[in-house]
C-alpha cells in the first residue's frame, strides 16, 4: 500500500481532484511495499498533465522491495535531497523512481541516509 496516494478519480467514484503546488518533506518511509509515493490520476484519456508542481524533498526511503516514487500524467515533479536505501545500502535516485507519461524529468540528487532507528511495529 502507498504511504501517500494522490489520484484524480475522474472515471469512477469522483472523490478527489487535481493536486497543484504540493510539498512532501522530512519524512521517513520504512518498507511500505509498493511505490511509497504514488501520484497516479485515473483519468481515462488525460490531455497533458493532471497534477503539477510536486516537490519531494529531504525524505528517507527504506524501500524493501518497492519503488520510492511513481508518477503518471504529472508535470514539474522535483525530488531533491532524498535518501534511498535498499537492502541496507544507499542507491541512486534513478533506480528508486518511476516517473513518466507527461512528467518532467526526475531531478534526484541523492544524499547519504542518516542513521535512524526502526519504528516499532504497531502489532506489538
Can you put this structure into words, describing what you see?
By secondary structure, this protein is mainly beta. The protein has a domain at 4-9 and 19-42 and 50-100. The protein is built from no helices and 11 strands. The strands form 3 sheets. The protein has a 4-stranded parallel β-sheet, with no helix packed on it. Strands 3-6-9-10 form a 4-stranded mixed β-sheet, with no helix packed on it. The two termini are 20 Å apart.
SSE arrangement, N to C: EEEEEEEEEEE
The fraction of residues in strands falls at 35-45%
Give the CA-based shape. globular
Q: Give the end-to-end Cα distance, rounded to a whole number of Å.
A: 20 Å
Biggest sheet descriptor? 4 strands, parallel
| Spatial strand order of the main sheet | 1-4-7-11
The poorly predicted ranges are 103-124
Structural class: mainly beta
Q: Specify the number of helices.
A: 0
Helix content: under 10%
State the total count of DSSP E strands: 11
Average pLDDT score: 76
For the CA atoms, what is the radius of gyration? 15 Å
